[in-house]
Amino acid sequence: MPKVSAVIPAHDEAATIAGVIQPLHAVDLIDDIIVVDDGSSDDTAARARGMGAKVISIPVSGGKAAAMALGVAAARHDILYYSDADVTGLTSEMIASILRPVAGRDFAMFVGIRGRKTYWANRLLHFTPIIGGQRALRRELWDQVPATYKKNFQIEIALNFFAKMNGHRMGCTVVEGLGQVIKERKRGLLRGLGQRLAMIGDILLVSWRIYAVLQTQLLFEQGRDDQRAA
Length: 230
Description:
It is a single chain. The protein has one domain: Spore Coat Polysaccharide Biosynthesis Protein SpsA, Chain A, CATH 3.90.550.10. Helices cover 47% and strands 20% of the residues. It has helices spanning 17-25, 44-50, 64-74, 92-103, 119-124, 139-143, 155-165, 183-187, 189-229, and strands spanning 4-10, 30-38, 54-58, 79-82, 87-88, 109-114, 134-138, 170-175, 179-180. Helix 2 links the parallel strand 2 (30-38) and strand 3 (54-58).
């Protein structure tokens, strides 16, 4: 099996960062752990270093996708494992179950989606956009996403789209027992709600840009090429 670089974008996640790094150390495939400290005002960077991770610190936050990109640039391997820094209950078994389909070349990207408390909600996850902070992928897939879509929370939808567009096989699984500290709890009600709305806005914006504008443009160009070929 090839080795894997783990990349963790983190902004003010001192409370949870150690619990994310620890299970990564326990996965044999991972020998390169990079935490991108995205303008944190707490001791996220110090705690990450104390857990044996390589830390890249950004003085001013550039957003999730920018932090992910810096992690890719510093990564030693061509298989990447992304983890959100605010998850709880993460285990080495969860990580390995997401990594193996990519390391074994069955998929170019594989996503772990947090399980919900009710069965019907978990069933719905298979019909909604694949949005999840636990994600394994090949570097070539990351490189195929244009820079214009590597912004904030737009990156996950963009990865999904360009994976399919370029013929890469992708999959997902529901990860039971994985939790996440919600933004309202981390940042306070008003600030957390503002960040949540900004995240939703990012997702809606990139969905419009890709599925309404770009896909229409691509279909038009394909139809024009078909007419010329005929």
